[in-house]
Amino acid sequence: MGKIFDITLLILILLSIIFVMLESVKGLPIDTYRFLYYGEWVITIFFTFEYVARIISIKKPSRYIFSFYGLIDLLSTLPLYLSFFITGTSALLAVRALRLLRVFRILKISRYIGESNRLARAIKDSGAKILVFLFAVLVLCIIMGTVMYLIEGEESGFKSIPISVYWCIVTMTTVGYGDIAPATPLGQLIAAMIMIVGYGIIAVPTGIVSAEYAADRKSKKVNLNTQVCANCNCSDHRDGAKFCYKCGEDLHNE
Amino acid sequence: MGKIFDITLLILILLSIIFVMLESVKGLPIDTYRFLYYGEWVITIFFTFEYVARIISIKKPSRYIFSFYGLIDLLSTLPLYLSFFITGTSALLAVRALRLLRVFRILKISRYIGESNRLARAIKDSGAKILVFLFAVLVLCIIMGTVMYLIEGEESGFKSIPISVYWCIVTMTTVGYGDIAPATPLGQLIAAMIMIVGYGIIAVPTGIVSAEYAADRKSKKVNLNTQVCANCNCSDHRDGAKFCYKCGEDLHNE
Amino acid sequence: MGKIFDITLLILILLSIIFVMLESVKGLPIDTYRFLYYGEWVITIFFTFEYVARIISIKKPSRYIFSFYGLIDLLSTLPLYLSFFITGTSALLAVRALRLLRVFRILKISRYIGESNRLARAIKDSGAKILVFLFAVLVLCIIMGTVMYLIEGEESGFKSIPISVYWCIVTMTTVGYGDIAPATPLGQLIAAMIMIVGYGIIAVPTGIVSAEYAADRKSKKVNLNTQVCANCNCSDHRDGAKFCYKCGEDLHNE
Amino acid sequence: MGKIFDITLLILILLSIIFVMLESVKGLPIDTYRFLYYGEWVITIFFTFEYVARIISIKKPSRYIFSFYGLIDLLSTLPLYLSFFITGTSALLAVRALRLLRVFRILKISRYIGESNRLARAIKDSGAKILVFLFAVLVLCIIMGTVMYLIEGEESGFKSIPISVYWCIVTMTTVGYGDIAPATPLGQLIAAMIMIVGYGIIAVPTGIVSAEYAADRKSKKVNLNTQVCANCNCSDHRDGAKFCYKCGEDLHNE
């Protein structure tokens, strides 16, 4: 029963995301937009029922409402209703933005992926070090962006320091759009140096995560399911667990 | 004898791939196209004989026919024959597509590379974790793509959400074509943030594979050959093996 | 008290960087530029007081003045005063360059990040090996750039060997602007080979850092604060330290 | 004495490379080209003396002549002399190519970098596995390139299968020039998938090198010098060595 409910929800989430994306495409037949509009309402009403059912079925609703998934679930239903009440031509952009907020529904899906918790923890463990590293990269980009602004000037597209810093980030991360590119020999020399350095330091966060992950890898793995505790709403219980691991509530599994 | 057959086959596979590629190039002398056409038929007939010989020489042909290599071998011969029977001008694209399917012949080559099995196993081992990671990247791209669609609008090329998501994937994976690039200051700021984040999280799959590979590395290495068992058609026997390691069939090596 | 001073300084540094960047943006209201100008002077005077205070409060000022942070602190104040004294229209560029030197103030921020020392040490440890590697990449780029210059010629943008080497660095580091791209079949073939090789060797510095970092990881972590020793001006003391770890000076902590 | 000779040689190599590069730049004063021309001859004559001296001073010249450094040393001198003897306007390109061969002189420099041997060995150790991996990437690129050729067609720049494969390599290695980019929705979807896959598999060679390097790291380090054995011409002796480690020849160090 719970399995079927889960799969239905999963399909509805994916359908909803596809609807949001298709809605923004121009040039489709007018019937398609009408179908997307009504389909969207059906899905939103379903999500509303799910949200209300979750609040009713657990003992401390406030804990759920302000949890990560509670906020995501609210965000998945409210915007469409709100967009219905806002009127007037000037509020058009606000309505459009609200409707697009539905895309955050995709985060509901993370409930169904057991591995995602482990991955999130691994990122969290090495997060502080990687943040320091990314900050160092940013500092380097601000300094080199200013230098390139001075050397290249406005002719090559380096119109201001913020634009130059943007270019430096695009280059250092090896994205390289090519909308802005150095044109003077000196600028190209320094750009080449920035690239070589960027190539060398990309190794640092990788090394950090490798070492952390290798250390984390020895921890055991257990299978978790998506059953929700009626008391505290936490959802990652071990398969076969009889009591909630957080609050001790009976999970009513025989 | 088997060695010579193997090398002939290898050369024919490579020749065939070069033929398929050259056929699509415009502006060559007309004699070249005629040569490619006849050469293609010769190679296809050779592959047909190989396919039939394999089916005849083993005891349970059905097991071979539905195996990975069996399907590849079939795919290497059938399309050209089929393209011969399809007529009418409307079927031109289908014929062209069928003829291009011959490019899959290159997968026949994997039979001759002993290391490829080990590599495939290493990817398989860490595959589930990397898939979860890639899925997380995709979720992030859908959300950020929608945000950029709202900020940049159609003037900068962000015509619809699917296009914006495509742009976000191009940026996050550091490919960076430059056919679509943010033009507003706010859009460039968010793009810079996406790049910095993409630069930081590229470390995650690398860390996973490093740790898995280091653990896998201690397994021993043996030399395998391409001799085929007459009973079960499996092909990676140890050098000097007398019986098939899967079904126990005598390999007739003295 | 020291905490409040630290936070004030941090905010001033960030403000100053934002001021330098905004100053270069064209098209803002004229009042904004005036505000930036006066704001800049206020911050510079504050930094001057900080610099003088640091020199007075320690016993051996010369050691501080010629240290890394001492030079950064000097560089954060002097340029603006100097730009005030240089006159004449021909000196305009020099003044502009001097004013932009203020961007180096961002390095003052590294004092407040405990992790940065560890990161710097990790980079230093594997620095020699990565330098050799980057040098090898450079040698490869010079050779391949010359080859591409010979093959592609001036029509495709490979105007001289330095430009070709620049293109090769852009390609090898996977930045790929697209301002210069090979147009002949042979050039594209060699470019593809360069990319595949670049893709393979990016693994080398990563492997080096991973191994070094994993070895370095076992060293213990202690909390350091930003308190400055009155004698030798070194600033990374352990929390609760009573004497300077470098010169033994009493830190006057009860 | 040997130290001074080494440094002189190093400077001459670097000067020579700069000369080759500058020679290709258009628009410099005519005196510069004349200076480069005569400077080039001086350096080449110096290298010729070095080459002859090396052959005379060792007992078995043939072993040196056909060694890696012997061939590099020959390549550093011969082309300029040959270009002198080739006459006629039709041989202009050959002369230009010969003259550019001088860029290989930069490989002479590797003699002076002790670490480079270790790096080369590390790459060699994991070379076979990385080659298999790169081959797998190539196979994937050929298949996906053919698929993209079929989907996109000539309008988007996918003119032939070789061009499509080139595009696929540019994309998979995350270089992304943008000279060719998919324009149809289906093409962009498949391109996005190729990028995501490329992002995932870049981890594989990194993981391989990390594991190999970590295993190799425990080997001890000794200081080597560039002194050459008079008998076998090998050059990486330990500091203070009295006899050649390869042939046992007396090195005449007191």
From TrEMBL, chains A, B, C, D:
Location(s), subcellular: Membrane
TM stretches of this protein: 37-56, 68-95, 130-151, 189-211
Xref: InterPro entries: Ion_trans_dom, VG_K_chnl, Volt_channel_dom_sf
Protein origin, superkingdom: Bacteria
Domain Ion transport per the UniProt entry, residue ranges: 3-219
UniProt keyword Secreted, yes or no: no
Protein topology in the membrane: Multi-pass membrane protein
SUPFAM superfamilies per record: Voltage-gated potassium channels
Coiled-coil parts of chain: none
Alphabetical keyword list: Ion channel, Ion transport, Membrane, Potassium, Potassium channel, Potassium transport, Transmembrane, Transmembrane helix, Transport, Voltage-gated channel
Signal peptide: none
Protein name: Ion transporter
Naturally occurring in which organism (per UniProt): Aquimarina celericrescens
Lineage: Bacteria, Pseudomonadati, Bacteroidota, Flavobacteriia, Flavobacteriales
